[in-house]
């Protein structure tokens, strides 16, 4: 069993149910398994989305008809592979990664999965590489340093069109998100991010709590209604 990010007495059951559905609905092929193995061999942290979450991201690409996807936070490219595979011919995913070693591992994994022609990793702090990107993106997945989520939201809006879907990972953090007095910079960044979405008339959003092999966490999904 993967070590959950947030401990719980139910962790083992949550992981079992995740595996049951993943086996039935989101089986990993050789390339996805190899990516996780290569990540581990290269010492990357185990912060990839789960297989079921990867499949959900892929389905989001499919059902939004996205042709251009932006990901902030690549790690080893596991989520990138899931989304890249759901793109149409001529589709493109650009993924932003601060850590050069993570980016190198990701490029290797993307090549193994044969999506290197549609998946590009840009190395650098996202706040330095975001200004280099051309709008619009159809789907934007925010999954990097949570402290910068407020800035990533502003960039996502700059790089959006009407109808763009914005998804952010890890917005529950074992329930920590409700602590208004938290000293955790990630939680503070997340709460500011949530407040910004709440206050922004251009966005329509919801949050989903999730349990599974990563423990108790969740995601926010927003759609851009106007610019
Ligand atoms: N989306 C990946 C997991 C990303 S983990 C998956 O599900 O497979 C978060 C990643 O964000 C890490 O690799 C980390 O190095 C990267 N990161 C952290 N701060 C960043 C920043 N300022 N700019 C870009 N990437 C950053
Ligand atoms: C962390 C980051 C993630 O993107 C994730 O899905 C889980 C944990 C982290 O930095 O702890
Ligand atoms: Mg994440």
Describe this structure in words.
The chain is an alpha/beta fold and 227 residues long. The chain has a single domain (11-224), classed as Vaccinia Virus protein VP39 (Rossmann fold), CATH 3.40.50.150. 41% of the residues lie in helices and 20% in strands. The protein is built from eight helices and seven strands, in the order αααβαβαβαβαβαββ. It has a seven-stranded mixed β-sheet, with helices on both faces. The radius of gyration is 17 Å and the shape is globular. The N and C termini lie far apart (44 Å). The structure holds S-adenosyl-L-homocysteine, 3,4-dihydroxybenzoic acid and magnesium ion. Residues 5, 47, 143, 169-170 line the site of 3,4-dihydroxybenzoic acid (DHB). S-adenosyl-L-homocysteine binds at residues 47-49, 73-75, 78-79, 96-99, 102, 125-126, 143-145, 148.
Question: Which properties best describe this structure?
Answer:
binds magnesium ion, single chain, 227 residues, Cation-dep_OMT, 7 strands, SAM-dependent_MTases_sf, alpha/beta, binds S-adenosyl-L-homocysteine, binds 3,4-dihydroxybenzoic acid, 7-stranded mixed β-sheet, globular, 8 helices
């Amino acid at each position: 069993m993967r070590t959950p990010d947030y401990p719980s007495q139910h962790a083992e059951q949550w992981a079992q149910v995740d595996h049951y559905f993943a086996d039935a609905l989101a089986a990993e092929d050789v390339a996805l398994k190899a990516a996780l193995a290569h990540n581990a061999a290269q010492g990357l942290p185990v912060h990839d989305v789960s297989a079921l979450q990867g499949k959900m991201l892929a389905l989001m690409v499919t059902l939004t008809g996205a042709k251009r996807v932006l990901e902030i936070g690549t790690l080893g490219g596991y989520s990138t592979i899931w989304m890249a595979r759901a793109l149409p011919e001529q589709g493109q995913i650009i993924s932003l990664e601060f850590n050069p070693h993570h980016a190198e591992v990701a490029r290797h994994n993307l090549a193994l999965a044969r999506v290197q022609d549609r998946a590009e990793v840009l190395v650098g702090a996202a706040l330095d590489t975001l200004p280099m990107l051309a709008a619009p993106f159809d789907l934007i997945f925010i999954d990097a340093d949570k402290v910068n989520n407020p800035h990533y939201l502003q960039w996502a809006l700059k790089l959006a069109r009407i109808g763009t879907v914005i998804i952010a990972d890890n917005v529950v953090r074992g329930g920590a998100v409700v602590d208004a007095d938290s000293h955790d910079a990630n939680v503070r960044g997340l709460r500011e991010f949530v407040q910004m979405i709440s206050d922004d008339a251009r966005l329509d959003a919801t949050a989903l709590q999730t349990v599974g092999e990563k423990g108790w966490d969740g995601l926010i999904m927003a759609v851009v209604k106007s610019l």
